[in-house]
Amino acid sequence: MSSIGTGYDLSASTFSPDGRVFQVEYAMKAVENSSTAVGIRCKDGIVFGVEKLVLSKLYEEGSNKRIFNIDRHVGMAVAGLLADARSLAEVAREEASNFRSNYGHDIPLKHLSDRVAMYVHAYTLYSAVRPFGCRQVTESSSVFTCFDSLFMSQILSVCSFILGSYDKDDGPQLYMVDPSGISYGYWGCAIGKAKQAAKTEIEKLQMKEMTCRELVKEVAKIIYIVHDEVKDKAFELELSWVGEITNGRHELVPKDVREEAEKYAKDSLEEDDDSDDDNM
Q: pTM here?
């Protein structure tokens, strides 16, 4: 991230001579230093998995969650600064609520993704604000909500996010928005410090042929594989899903299913370790 000159990284509204916006790149770097989150789309729904690092033994279990409910049919998984993620989650909830109030039905995920992406992008255009430092999964609606709040608060956030939803007409949908305000649709994506290793594992899956019940075990396995035992000792696995199995509602994975998925992930890692020892 070296610049040709000095001062080009002091504002999100300033381009460097080689056409880069350093403030946005710094925001993406903040996301890459965060814990890993993955979202995978299968034939009957979406499954989210998040590696929530436990930085202190004094933390209460289940606090500071990185998976949010946005609407009854939409979930959000985030990486980056948690405070920024909460702020964007509230924006997405307000967009979804306003859309239902205006049009009488659930907001389409593509519309929500575009609306929140525009909100994130607006924070890269003004020197008085900074980019969002997180990534997340969510949805959005009304036309004026985002930009009214932009000028009321002069803060730029640092986060990226994955959006996922399910409905009977469009089926499962998955989108990811990064700090620059770009939105892409995916079958599977990962964000956070181990995103590249997670993407490699996701590419090995036949997700188009899998169900949510089968996929939740693979998502847990991916999180355990990419977790760095040396640098990050303890973590909590957060899992959620939305699809036919939940009648189209975004919900946390039940405790018994999550424990079964964690057991599968740990057993798979032990088998891989044993096979490596045998090969040596």
A: 0.85
